[in-house]
Structure formats: structure tokens, C-alpha cells
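A reminder before we start the practical. When you read a complex entry, don't treat the lines as separate problems. The point of joint prediction is that each chain is placed relative to the others, so the output describes one connected object in space. Small molecules and nucleic acid strands, if listed, are placed in the same frame. In the example below there are three entries. Take a minute to note the order of the lines before looking further.
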Amino acid sequence: MRLALAVHGAPYASQSSASALRFARAAVAGGHEIPRVFFYHDGVQAASAIAVAPQDEPSPLDGWVALAAEHDMELAVCIAASLKRGVVNEEERARYSLSAANVHPSFAVVGLGQLIDAVMQADRLVTFAA
Amino acid sequence: MATLHLVNHARALPACLERAGADDAVLLLEDGVYAAAAPLPRAVYVLAADVRARGLGARLPSEAAVIDDAGFVDLVVAHQPVVTWR
Amino acid sequence: MAPRRILFLLRQPPYATSHALEALEAVLVAGVFDQVVSVLFADDGVWQLLRDQDGDAVGMRTVGRVATALPQYDVNDIYVCGESLRRLGLSPDDLVLPVTLLDGAGQQALIAGQHAVVSD
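Here is the predicted structure of the whole assembly.
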């Protein structure tokens, strides 16, 4: 089955991202596809490439990056939600003449329409709320 | 197909139950599992990792069925839609 | 592909967090995708529809005004939990939009008929 995930909470501020990651691992282990994980609201913070996890804790960023690389999974962050929270890729950095970009290359910065597209392409939407 | 309700805060359980059908499934996860520390009005599922993390394992009533992450996936596959209450 | 039935379940009050506004923005986007989109305002989410809001007072967009754009984006199935409305001491005349009131059973049936439900 094709599952779309929505992640609404920021790592550390909320358990949302960690719960979604565990679910995603279990789903692909069960033979299901997750074509897209859509990060929205504070969930867009998951895309920051410059987050450093404490040494004795697993890194949420590494977890998502590894899972997406192993499976055909798009990690999509909403552009409107991410820009205003300081989560910016190189293209947006240049567009707004910002001093730095911080989106990890494994994440795609996309429009909100990709959430609806994910719902249209998938058999289920599972939302991990803040 | 019946609905799966995900409740990730105990405070949201009443709002969920007001709109849940008798055949629907309710899964408590994250802080939602604390709702299972008090008497429950109906049968629910609770997510094992969240129960274990919070030390609630010995305190669950008989209405709460513990499932693991693979069981969570199975519930999603068997229900539509999946509704989150926070 | 047959259109999907997508319900947005909006239960958060406006202003204290961005959840209400960002969820409404998602509804507006969904409206242009030619799917069967509906919205259910329930619990504190009903506050999003109260008349006379002025987001400028707290440096934010006026959420009630965003909600009034729903019909312009072809979102016309706008539901409100009748019990929530009553609990908040409101009547339909207090809201910025004409809405359809649903009781618990009506909301259960609305949810049950969806392919997907997007929460705020």
C-alpha cells in the first residue's frame, strides 16, 4: 500500500517527527511504499542540515536521510512554512539574498500543493501532529 | 471501511470519542497513552513504545490493547480514513 | 483518477499558534485541485470563524478574513460542530461565513466518507 505521511511537529519540541520516523521504518519493513513525507507547520525544522544531536541520542536528521536514501521516499518541506522559520535552501537563499542556506540536500523544498498531491497519489494519509 | 483515530494528547480523547463510531479503531500514542492511566469508556489500542517510555505498562486497564509499530501500520492499512486528534 | 474526498479537521484556536492559519492555507490550496474538499470546524477551531477579528492588533493576518476566502477557492462544504458552537456560547450569526451545522453522528458520517482527513 502507498502511504503518505504528514509531520507537523519540530524535532525535540514535539515527538511528532520521531513517531513518524518509527512508523515509516515499520511501514517499509512491512513492504509498504511511502512516496512522500510532507513536513508542515513546525515540522519543517526537520530539514535543517545544521542541527547537531546530543552525542548519546540518535539524530532525527540522520534517521530521515538514511531511510529516504534506502527507499524511494521524497522528504518534502513546505516552502511557505519553512521560509518564515528560517529553513532555507540555496535557491531561496539566493532569491532573498540571505546570508546562509541550511536545508539538507536530501530534503526537497516544495509548494503546499504537494501535500494535496501526496494525498491524491496515496492510499492513506497519516498525520503526526505536534 | 471503518475510521482509525489517532490521539496523541490525552486531552484530545473526549473530542475524538464524540465523533468516533462504535466500529472505529482508536489508537493512543505519544502523550495520548496517559488517557489509558484512567478508566476508559471503550476499547482502545495503545502504542507499545510510548507506553514503555512513560512507565505505564503495569497501569493499563483491560480496555487497552498494546500494539507495536508494525501493528500501527496494520491498523492504518485496515482503516480509512486515518484521523489525528491533538 | 477519480477525485479524492479530503476533509480538513480544524480544531485549533487562531493566533496563539500558527496552526489555524497554516491549516486554512492548506485548505485554500486543496480547493484548486479539483478534489472533493470539505472543512469541519470543531471545538476551539470554531473561534476561527468569529466575526470582528483583527489580527493587526497582534501583528498577524486576520484568520477570519482568510476563512471568508474559502468559497472563492471552490471550498463550499463548510461544516461546524453544533455542540462546539453551543458550548462556546455562539450562534451561526456570529460567524463570518454561512455554515452547515452537524451533530456528533453527522460528523462521524462526514469523517467516515473521506479518503483522507488533514488535521491542523
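Discuss with your neighbour: Strands of chain C lie at 5-10, 36-41, 77-81, 100-102, 116-119. What might explain this?
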